[in-house]
Specification:
Length: 494
């Protein structure tokens, strides 16, 4: 049986991939593309942020089922803000101990729903070996010790005595190292400047080493983060950033006696997590929530959420969750954000229904599950109101989404990922949401929204026995891989 390797390339976009290959700057990607089922419009998860997407990739479900709402969210039960590390300043304010523990331990062991199984869990229950290289969502049946770097340890008094779980082969940079890789000499790629080994070169080094050792798992998921960091800073150099990723992929291909040999032995899948949208340069491209919500008592980062707090803001770049103190406050917040046309979508829950509006308009669309209108993915929906709010069309047989791919399931996925009175807002094209200490990218790239620019990702499948079903979604990759490895899909766990 062939092994399966899945490369997750952060912020790889279909048009950039195609331009990079056309410009002959990506021989590795070109080799794979020419032997692939290429899907340029695979739909990712909303919010279009790595944390919620990674969880969907390994569980095959949207956040309403796996329960990781985003990169930054508020746990209404423990009254704590959860940040899987987005920017240095919020980390300073919330405390590195809390953020590091959120990302290293809580995400996998506490927050990720126990009612779903990760691909690693399913594979290892079926006596196959699974591997995860530098992916923050990695829950599995094996326990691994965390090695905090001495610097970080001293700085924070952070001591993670608990072990983290993962598949048999498990890496989180230099913090969790697979056994066979512990003897490797220390180099630049493992320093704090390079994210403690959470970088492309280290991930590829490790993958090559694992294959050479003869201990390659049946399935290995490899995360390559650097394209995202570079795009945030200089989105106009997108082709050259992806060419850098290609150089790493070529190192991997060159580790075989021929590139063809790699495909004889492996199914090689490449996917992205989300796209990016270029943000305008002027200050007005930051939508200030402090300004829009000036009539409310806004929670201050790092402080307790006391009785007098009206709203807790959890900023996910081009998307935010606004947690209201009660239903009455929620409606006032909706009215306050509706006045701004730079806000693209405003959505909230009313019992089992989702209500959506656009900034600058009071027209609304209501939708709910199990109605009479089928979508292309097998779900059915009830609809009331103005369908143009989400650019939805019904052709007499099926619902079609264009501007907001798989809009109903994905908005539903975000709003029903937790309980409480929460409003979801997204920024219009070219804009980003500004709140206390959130990282901003004026003149740079950003993501998080439901719009197709942030939401459509390329999917390349080379050397597989099966065809991927269309229309493609990131949440369907898990079952595809299980099928390639001879395991029937696990029945729906909802
Ligand atoms: Zn990013």
């Amino acid at each position: 049986m062939k092994k399966v390797i899945l490369f997750l390339i952060d912020s790889m976009m279909p048009d950039v991939l195609e331009r990079c290959i056309a410009a002959k700057k990506a021989p590795g990607l070109q080799f794979l593309m020419e032997r692939s089922q290429y899907i340029p419009d695979c739909v990712t998860v909303f919010p279009t942020m790595t944390a919620s997407i990674d969880c969907s990739l390994i569980t095959g479900v949207y956040p309403d089922v796996h329960k990781i709402p985003g990169l930054v969210w508020y746990d209404t039960e423990t009254q704590q803000m959860i940040n899987y590390i987005n920017g240095a300043i919020p980390v300073q304010k919330m405390g590195i101990t809390s953020c590091a523990s959120n990302v290293l331990f809580d995400l996998n062991e506490r927050h990720l729903s126990k009612n779903v199984k990760t691909i690693h869990e399913v594979l290892e229950e079926n006596n196959l070996v699974s591997g995860s290289i530098n992916v923050i969502a990695h829950r599995g049946h094996k326990k691994h010790k965390v090695h905090m770097p001495p610097m970080l340890d001293a700085l924070t008094s952070f001591q993670l005595r608990e072990k983290v779980s993962g598949p048999t082969l498990m890496s989180m940079g230099t913090l969790v190292r697979p056994q066979l890789f512990r003897s490797v000499t220390w180099d630049m790629s493992q320093t704090v400047l390079k994210g403690y080994g959470i970088n492309d070169a280290y991930a590829i080094d490790l993958l090559i080493e694992v294959i050479r050792s003869g201990k390659q798992p049946h399935f290995t998921l490899v995360y390559l983060p650097e394209n995202d960091h570079k795009l945030h800073k200089s989105p106009h150099d997108a082709v050259s950033h992806l060419a850098d990723v290609d150089r790493e992929l070529v190192r991997f291909l060159d580790s075989f006696s021929s590139w063809e040999q790699m495909l004889e032995r492996n199914v090689c899948i490449l996917i992205s997590d989300h796209g990016q949208t270029v943000i305008g340069e002027g200050e007005e491209h930051n939508i200030s929530l402090n300004h829009l919500l000036s009539g409310f008592s806004i929670h201050a980062l790092g402080k307790a959420v006391t009785q007098d707090v009206d709203v807790v803001i959890c900023n996910n770049e081009r998307m935010s969750y606004l947690y209201a103190k009660d239903a009455n406050t929620l409606h006032k917040i909706v009215e306050a954000v509706t006045v701004d046309e730079r806000i693209d979508l405003i959505a909230w829950r009313e019992n089992e229904k989702v209500i959506v509006r656009r900034g600058g308009s009071t027209e609304s669309l209501h939708f709910w599950r199990d109605g009479i209108y089928p979508d292309a993915y097998g779900a059915t929906w009830g609809i009331e109101g103005d369908v143009s709010v989400l650019d939805v069309h019904f052709d007499g047989e099926q619902l079609h989404f264009d501007t907001y791919p798989d809009a109903f399931s994905r908005l539903y996925g975000a709003l029903f990922s937790q309980s409480g009175d929460v409003v979801v807002i997204t920024a219009a094209k070219g804009y980003e949401i500004l709140s206390e200490s959130a990282p901003t990218h004026l003149g740079g790239g950003s993501h998080g929204s439901l719009h197709k620019q942030d939401s459509l990702i390329p999917l390349l499948i080379a050397g597989a026995a099966h065809q991927f079903n269309l229309p493609a979604r990131l949440i369907d990759v898990k079952d595809f891989i299980l099928r390639e490895l001879g395991i029937a899909a696990v029945p729906d766990q909802r």
